[in-house]
Structure formats: structure tokens, C-alpha cells
Amino acid sequence: MMTKKILRALAGETLPTPPIWMMRQAGRYLPEYKATRAEAGDFLSLCYNPDLAAEVTLQPIRRYGFDAAILFADILLVPQALGCDLWFETGEGPRLSTIGNPGDLARLKDRDGIHTTLGPVYETVRILRRELPSEVTLIGFAGAPWTVATYMIAGRGTPDQGPAHALKASDRATFTALIDLLTGATIDYLSAQIEAGAEVVKLFDSWAGSLKGQDFDDFALAPAKRIIAELKSRHPGLPIIAFPREAGDRYEGFAKATGADCVALDNSVAAEWAAAHVQKDGCVQGNLDPSLLVTGGDRLVSETKRIVAAFSKGPHIFNLGHGITPDADPENVHRMIEAVRG
Ligand code: CP3
């Protein structure tokens, strides 16, 4: 019998109370996270230290009793495993060696060369499967090809993904070859996480919203469909969550078109609209505004309850519309959970 609430919701069951977890639930808003990160030295050393990465994954489970744990790692480990330099500038974010021409692409490894670098991540998954409470679901993840490509092409995060759009326009062959390489590497990476014990995987396409029209079909939808089809054929029945952030009206039909079991919604879509247009096709996840965990108050409770009510007639996993921010108050997370679980 399937008892884990997250797996039941992903299988299409409408539960009396939605299961709950949070994007970036292991992170800098938690003092215990900051302590473990200091022990590891820096963020990347933490990602590649299986004992400490498992520890920070477990911290929010201990503190809050969430229904799911998300593997502690980062979407940018895949470019690093393909041979890009990766580092984090304190207070600024990620930096990578850039991909801008066929020569840069040719210097990257093949998709099957990634596992040496990523081995410690699979070990983190194995530790977590041993240590997690039996009712908690373990979620693995990767970045979607477009989102990861935006960082590789620009060498950093960008407000409008300008460099990636420019390469798509100026050198379509290099751009599509990069998307294809990432699609293959993502399949192999997620497959290895599943073999190590991940029970669900989530594909983060954080910049999907900047792809419009046919570009959305070609570079958000098609790669997700390929990744999901291959994972489903290798691991029948393994549930997959897709997060095409800021897809707007393209959220409608996304699950059917890609084969995803659940679509994660950002907080720019109204829950009432998504209940009618997205949840009709299956489970949805979302979509509280993360800034409410900073401001708290009555609005945190009323917005949480509004979202729970809007999605109450179908399968729903309660979550934020994006990651919790470092300035969030850990006490507000308790208030949110209390408002969901009653
Ligand atoms: O708790 C969890 O959600 C699991 C771990 C996780 C991290 N990053 C840890 C992290 C997950 C699922 C991610 C996904 C991720 N990483 C995304 C997609 C989701 C999203 O937020 O849109 C993206 C775009 C990245 C790339 C990335 N990693 C950026 C742009 C940054 C810098 C910005 C920031 O928030 O600092 C990171 C760093 C990062 N990844 C941190 C954490 C906890 C903060 C690093 C630190 O401890 O200093």
C-alpha cells in the first residue's frame, strides 16, 4: 500500500490535507544550515560532501516535519561535471566559464563522463534513503536544459537571459547542440539519482518564462518531454514534477504535453485559474508567494488558506511559488504549516 502522502498526491489522489514541502527548504534562513555550511567550508564543498549534504537535507525535516526532503545539491553541478569551471562569488551568485562557440562546446565532456564528478551526489541520496523517516518522500532534481544553458552561455545569472537568447539567434547549431548535450546528461544524472534511491524527481526550468511561442515548444517543452519519456521508460511509474517557472498560460496542457505527473506553479498565476486550467489534468504543486515568509502576519495565514481552498478539489502538494529567501523568518514557516495542516 502506498502510504507516503506526496506519492499519493502524485498518483492523483485528492487528500483531505495537502502534503507540504518548500523549495530551498535547506538554506540560509536556517541557522543550522549556516553552521553546517561553515563546517564544510563553502557551498560547493557542502554539495560534494555526502555526510554534510545529507545533514542539511535532514535539517528542515527535523525542524518542521515536511512530507518531502529535497536532495541538497545544485543545478549547476551538471555543467561542472561536463567540464565547465564553476565557482560562487559571495553575495553575488554563480560564475562559470562560458560557452559561446563550437570550440567551447567541443571542449566539454560527453554525457557519460559526468558520473565521476557527480558520484558524491548519488552517495548523498543513498545516505538519505537510509536516514529519512519512513513517511518522508525523497525528491531528486536537476535543472532543465534551457535554464542550465542560460547560466553556461552567460557565465552567470542574468535578469533577462540575454546572452542565451543571442546565441540562439546567432548560432542556432551551437545552441541546439548544447541543449541536446544537456538533455542527455540530465537523463543520465536523474536516472543515477533514481537508482541511488530518489523516489520522485523534479525538473527546474526557472527561466522557462523567457521563452515565447515556438521557442517555448522547442526549448522548454520538447526537452522536458524527451527527459520524462526516457526516465519513464527506464524507471516505470517513477513520478516526475516539472517546474516551467513563469510559463503563464503555457502551464495549461504542459503536463499532458510532456508526460509530467505534476506541474509546479510559480506565484504569478492565480491558484483559482490554475485549479480550473492546470489541475484538471492532474496534480499541481504550489504556489505561495515566498515574500510572505518574510512579512508574515495575517496575510501569510489568509493567503496560505486561500491556496489550500482553491486546490482542494484535486490532487495538490502545497509549496512556495519559488525558493524561500535568506531573510525569511523560520517562525513564519511554522505558521504556514499550521495554516495548511490546521
Ligand atoms: O533546499 C533545496 O531546495 C535543495 C537544494 C537546491 C539548491 N539550489 C541549493 C542552493 C536546489 C533545488 C537548487 C536549485 C537551483 N539552483 C535553481 C533552480 C531553482 C530556482 O531557484 O529557480 C537555480 C536557478 C540554481 C542556481 C543557483 N544556485 C543560484 C542562482 C544560486 C545563487 C543564488 C542564491 O540563492 O544564493 C545558487 C546557490 C544555492 N543553491 C544556495 C543553495 C542553498 C545558496 C548558496 C549558499 O549557501 O550560499
UniProtKB/TrEMBL annotation:
Its EC number is 4.1.1.37. Pfam families: URO-D. Pathway: Porphyrin-containing compound metabolism; protoporphyrin-IX biosynthesis; coproporphyrinogen-III from 5-aminolevulinate: step 4/4. It catalyses: uroporphyrinogen III + 4 H(+) = coproporphyrinogen III + 4 CO2. Substrate binds at R24, Q25, A26, G27, R28, D74, Y151, S206, H322. Homodimer. HAMAP family: URO_D. This is Uroporphyrinogen decarboxylase. It comes from Albidovulum litorale. The gene is hemE.
